[in-house]
């Protein structure tokens, strides 16, 4: 019961203002406050289909950027594309059998020419554990470049 001289409506306005400020981005979070079950909240989220990316260099880069954003890995389309073109010319099956890594028994593989130990150490969850998989290769290489150079955008030569 409100204290003497206070209006109930003021409290409702505060709630309305806070929900209006929150916008639709937290509607799922706000639903349980109004008695929605987690099942009904998840029904809304599951109706959105995942983004379909084309099975080509553009699609692989865009999908990798999406995965990277989910994991806080920095990088831009341009930085990734520039490095891919230098390292493999866009061939996800590229393998370097002549450099010092290959001589040591760990050839560089895939779009961004990642060696197996680096791929294993910097593999990003949610991608296949396969250095030839284009998205897994890009995300692992960008994860490594972020750790070593701050971002794949800062890489302008062999790394």
UniProtKB/TrEMBL annotation:
Residues 1-41 form the signal peptide. Residues 84-156 form the Transglycosylase SLT domain. Gene3D superfamilies: 1.10.530.10. It comes from the Bacteria. Pfam families: SLT (PF01464). SUPFAM superfamilies: Lysozyme-like. The keyword Cell cycle does not apply. Transmembrane segments: none annotated. Keywords: Signal. This is Transglycosylase SLT domain-containing protein. It comes from Streptomyces virens. The lineage of its organism: Bacteria, Bacillati, Actinomycetota, Actinomycetes, Kitasatosporales.
């Amino acid at each position: 019961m409100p204290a003497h001289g206070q209006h109930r409506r003021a409290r409702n306005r505060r709630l309305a203002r806070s929900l209006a400020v929150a916008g639709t981005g937290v509607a799922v979070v706000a639903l349980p406050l109004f008695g929605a079950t987690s099942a009904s909240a998840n029904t809304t989220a599951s109706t959105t289909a995942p983004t379909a990316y084309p099975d080509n260099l553009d699609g692989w880069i865009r999908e990798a950027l999406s995965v990277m954003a989910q994991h806080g890995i920095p990088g831009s389309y341009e930085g990734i594309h520039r490095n891919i073109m230098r390292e493999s010319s866009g061939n996800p099956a590229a393998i370097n059998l002549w450099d010092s890594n290959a001589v040591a028994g760990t050839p560089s593989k895939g779009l961004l020419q990642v060696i197996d130990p680096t791929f294993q150490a910097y593999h990003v969850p949610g991608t296949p554990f396969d250095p030839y998989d284009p998205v897994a290769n890009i995300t692992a290489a960008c994860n490594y470049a972020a750790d070593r150079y701050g971002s794949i955008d800062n890489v302008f030569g062999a790394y």
